[in-house]
Design goal:
With 951 residues, the chain is mostly beta strands.
């Protein structure tokens, strides 16, 4: 990192707008209260502690002002956070809402509720933030340095700690309603909080209830999402699983039934799958939360916490189809038009005489009976969209005792147990085996095998020709059950060492020491249908049974050593250090440590820095998840079209990967811009090692002005990761990696459809691009965080507060294997990158408080982004660059009485439409509806009304 680049970035940040960082001292009204805190980032209980870690807090006033219904909605806009799975993800939604700090992945940060882990969701060990009772949150602390030795090695990128309201007395009701200007996307939220003291003030109990109901926003209800657009041409594209049917196989190439339904012609009508997809996934959620504390005597307090959440999420995608599977089609199928039958016979080298004889024969034992293996792609437009319903339930119970010991020491003993369960059910997908059975028919009403009430299926008619009886026969719902649990015990002692202090310091040496035990269990199993690869049409890979567990025993210690007090140019100089020893049942022993310090020059200026070394063990999913075939975006295939007909080496590779010789010259581009890809867990995975550094300062040059600047750098070696799709494809076909076009190791990881040579087909038959998980990855990211806040007092005219937060990221590099590209996805998008991460994200807020009224303007800035440089020229020029975006949100609050306040918020005041980049330029989960809907606003201008009533 050069000094010039750091200076340039600093100037850019200072000139840019941004939003949620360091609050103004004493800022009233709705001003955001962001300050250095002493709770999160250390276990040392020292009232004079100023942490060396960068800790930011978002308070309940900001939460109320944003009028959000979930924790994910609060976090995804913060600089330094890359949006993860949430309501903006449709095809790829797993029913959870997760957080991704620094773009390192949701598995490399820890989510806490009142400084304790919450039970994970699914096999990946990550927390579902939808379990957070957002209506009861007092503040959110975000630590982005030095967190692994305090909370566990998986806190490589940091921790997010949700702090609930404590010692609450009274009743508070919060309710809100949001709707877009297009009259959709309604969100209703309501929270009830009841609390009070008991036993003459020795105890306090708080109970909270929450409800959320969010309605969907269809992509077809926005002009930029109405048509599935090709990222290559910009034209209305779509899927070759269409209506009328598309046929592929033999020497036919890819042909489609004409509009009259009489003969096969060149493919002309891709299916537009966009309109039924979703920009905002519907969510209905209930949660209940309770906590209590009771002072048993002067030195011992008992405390407890319990919460439970139940939610229902429904994602929706376009109608099912026979997709890219290979079927055995009888030449005597009763629905085959004569001309189509003759064309198929010719494409498979069947003479006309043999074709005519086979057409008249339905007896499979007859010598004249013929079947061909053929790709049939018929969209079930008559049926309605496919749905995935996620029904989630989770609970957690915490109980503990804490108290005082002699010599200014204290102790805290706690135990917790939680479970998370999900039943995911998919509908209107259809069964491959039933379609195959229904294709073998003696006439239009009778199948050759009648079991199950078989109804012959008509794949060769025009749209509208398929009947409900046909769908009833092929239909079946399928469910998968996933369960996780977390049990933990923690004992912590904290205090100081009597009069032990350095002669140059006034403060004593403080410490926190303790032990922790955690046990994780996770399992997932689909029903019979879901566990059969390729049986559910359009469902991607199967849901095989998975079961795994591990436990970890840990010892930890932290030390805070004041070095110098009240010396020239040193008001206070403090050293802090931490060490955590872990013993995993899976990978054995590891050690994580940190060292840092603060140098307070005077009352207005302070330096801070932390260095940590962390070792993360693989989670259950990374270890035990079976190899599975799914789908990933890719718009082209090196073997498609005429290219292999003029290059013998290329032709040889395509054939060696499984393409039949007769398909060369006829292999089509990936259907719907997607290919099969195969991945899974690896029981041989070991730990990954990270080094993180933060260096910065906090400066208050004048009253009511606070500035902070922090440099961060995270290096991760032995990263648990899999190659990008282009790493495999280019490793085989690119001249820079394989100049002689020899069949190398990368080529062996591409497995083609043995009927049509494509990378599409049944997951049971076509693996596509195989990407295996290893410990060979290297990840590097670095950048600057900047915060500022100032307040102007206008006397009788009120007060104006301004605060700013920005993150300028220098790099976010990822190399999956030593022979993979060392790819920097920062500021770039492509199928090889995750969700989009602009170089600069900045938020700022201006709030004017006048008597009972507050008016607040929030501005969010995202710097420009571009297509990955190696792919420039591959896509439509207009889709290769996204300009910088500015969003403005306006809020007004009226404190009508001491008990009643009303907030009105208009998000995206200028109604900015998202950038259009087509549908297959990035990963499926993130690049949807022709844009990146989790990064850019696809809903448009929205209106929210919130009411708070206190008793």
């Amino acid at each position: 990192m050069t000094n010039r680049k750091i200076a340039e970035a600093t100037r850019t940040i200072l000139a840019a707008a941004g939003a949620v960082s360091i609050a103004l001292s004493g800022a009233p009204g709705m001003a955001q209260d962001l300050e250095e805190v002493v709770v999160t980032g250390t276990r040392i209980a020292n009232p004079n502690l100023t942490s060396a870690s960068q800790v930011l807090a978002v308070d309940s006033a900001e939460i109320a002002l944003k009028q959000i219904a979930s924790a994910e909605a609060l976090l995804r806009d913060l600089p330094g956070v890359v949006p993860s799975i949430g309501p903006g993800v449709n095809n790829g939604n797993n029913g959870a809402q997760t957080v991704n700090l620094r773009g390192l992945g949701s598995g490399r940060n820890v989510v806490l509720l009142d400084s304790r882990r919450i039970v994970p969701f699914g096999l990946g060990g990550v927390a579902d933030t939808s379990n957070i009772p957002i209506g009861l949150i007092e503040r959110v602390d975000i630590v982005t340095g030095g967190a692994s030795s305090v909370y566990g090695a998986d806190a490589i990128a940091g921790v997010t700690n949700f702090i609930t309201k404590r010692n609450f007395e009274g009743v508070q009701i919060d309710a809100g309603y949001r709707q877009t200007e297009e009259n959709d996307g309604e969100v209703l939220r309501a929270n009830l909080l009841i609390g009070g003291n008991f036993a003459d003030g020795r105890g306090n109990a708080v109970v909270g209830l929450g409800y959320q109901d969010s309605k969907p926003v269809l992509q077809g209800n926005r002009p930029f999402g109405l048509f599935a657009r090709s990222s290559v041409t910009g034209g209305a594209g779509g899927s070759s699983a269409a209506a009328p049917v598309v046929v592929a196989g033999g020497t036919l190439g890819t042909r489609q039934l004409d509009q009259a339904g009489t003969s096969l012609v060149p493919f002309y009508a891709p299916y537009n799958f966009n309109p039924l997809n979703i920009y905002q996934t519907p969510v209905e959620k209930f949660n209940i939360y309770g906590q209590a504390n009771f002072q048993i005597n002067d030195s011992i307090e008992a405390y407890g916490q319990a919460w439970s959440t139940k939610s229902r999420i429904v994602s929706q995608i376009a109608e099912s189809a026979t997709f890219f599977n290979t079927y055995r089609l009888p030449i005597s199928n009763p629905f085959l038009p004569v001309a189509v039958r003759n064309q198929i016979c010719a494409g498979y080298g069947i003479s006309q005489a043999a074709c005519d004889a086979a057409a008249a024969t339905t007896n499979a034992s007859s010598a004249d009976y013929r079947e061909v293996s053929i790709g049939l792609r018929r969209r079930f437009v008559e049926w309605g969209p496919r749905t995935s319903t996620f029904e989630n339930e989770a609970f957690q119970i915490v109980g503990g005792l804490r108290g005082e010991l002699p010599a200014d020491w204290s102790w805290d003993l706690s135990a917790q147990y939680g479970e998370s369960g999900q039943v995911s059910t998919i509908g209107k997908y259809g069964l491959f085996s039933r379609v195959q059975q229904a294709l073998r028919a003696t006439n239009t009403t009778t199948c050759t095998v009648t079991t199950g009430g078989c109804v012959p299926i008509n794949l060769f008619g025009t749209p509208g020709s398929m009947t409900q009886a046909m769908f009833n026969f092929i239909d079946a719902t399928s469910s998968t059950r996933t369960d996780t649990s977390l049990a933990a015990v923690n004992l912590t002692f904290t205090g100081d060492f009597g009069d032990l202090k350095l002669p140059t310091a006034d403060e004593r040496i403080s410490s926190a020491i303790g032990a922790e035990y955690r046990e994780y269990n996770a399992s997932s199993a689909g029903d019979f249908l879901g566990s059969q690869p390729g049986e559910l049409l359009g469902a991607g890979g199967a849901d095989p049974a998975v079961r795994g567990k591990y436990d970890v025993s840990e010892l930890f210690a932290e030390f805070l050593v004041p070095l110098v007090t009240d010396a020239p140019f040193i008001k206070a100089l403090t050293l802090e250090a931490g060490l955590r020893y872990s013993d995993y049942s899976t990978v054995g022993e590891s050690t994580t440590w940190k060292v840092g310090g603060t140098w307070e020059v005077n009352d207005s200026f302070r330096f801070r820095s932390v260095f940590q070394s962390a070792v993360r063990a693989p989670n259950i999913g990374e270890l035990f998840f079976p190899v599975q075939t799914g789908l990933a975006n890719r718009s082209s295939d090196p073997c498609q079209g005429a290219a292999p007909t003029t290059n013998s080496a290329l032709r040889a590779i395509c054939i060696a990967q499984g393409a039949p010789a007769g398909s060369i010259g006829f292999i089509t581009a990936p259907a719907a811009g997607q290919i099969n890809t195969t991945s899974g867990g690896n029981r041989d995975l070991d730990t990954e090692e990270a080094e993180t550094l933060t260096v910065g300062f906090v400066w208050s040059p004048i009253d009511n002005l606070t500035l902070s600047l922090d440099y961060f750098k995270i290096d991760l070696d032995g990263a648990i990761s899999a190659p990008a799709i282009d790493d495999v494809v280019n490793g085989c076909f690119a001249s820079s990696f394989n100049p002689n076009l020899e069949f190398n190791a990368a080529c062996s990881n591409i497995r083609r459809n043995t009927v049509d040579g494509s990378l599409n087909g049944s997951p049971a038959d076509v693996l596509g691009v195989v990407v295996a998980s290893t410990n060979q990855g290297v990840i590097e990211t670095s950048g600057l965080d900047f915060g500022a806040g100032y307040g102007w007092d206008f006397g009788d005219m009120g007060r104006l507060n301004w605060n700013l937060n920005a993150t300028y990221t220098f790099e976010n590099k990822f190399q999956a294997t030593p022979v993979s590209v060392n790819r920097d996805c920062l500021g770039y998008y492509s199928i090889n990158c995750g969700n989009l991460q602009p170089e600069l994200i900045a938020n700022q807020r201006f709030t004017w408080a006048y008597k009972a009224f507050d008016v607040s303007l929030r501005h969010r800035y995202l710097s420009s982004t571009s297509i990955e440089p190696a792919l420039r020229g591959t896509y439509l020029p207009a889709y290769q660059d996204i300009e910088a975006f500015n969003y403005f949100d306006l809020s007004g609050r009226w404190q009508a009485t001491e008990q009643l306040s009303v907030i009105l918020t208009i998000d995206n005041v200028t109604d900015e439409a998202p950038p259009e980049v087509g549908n297959d330029i990035g990963p499926t989960a993130w690049n949807s509806g022709n844009t990146y809907p989790t990064v850019y606003d696809a809903l448009g201008r929205t209106y929210s009304l919130g009411v708070t009533l206190k008793f």
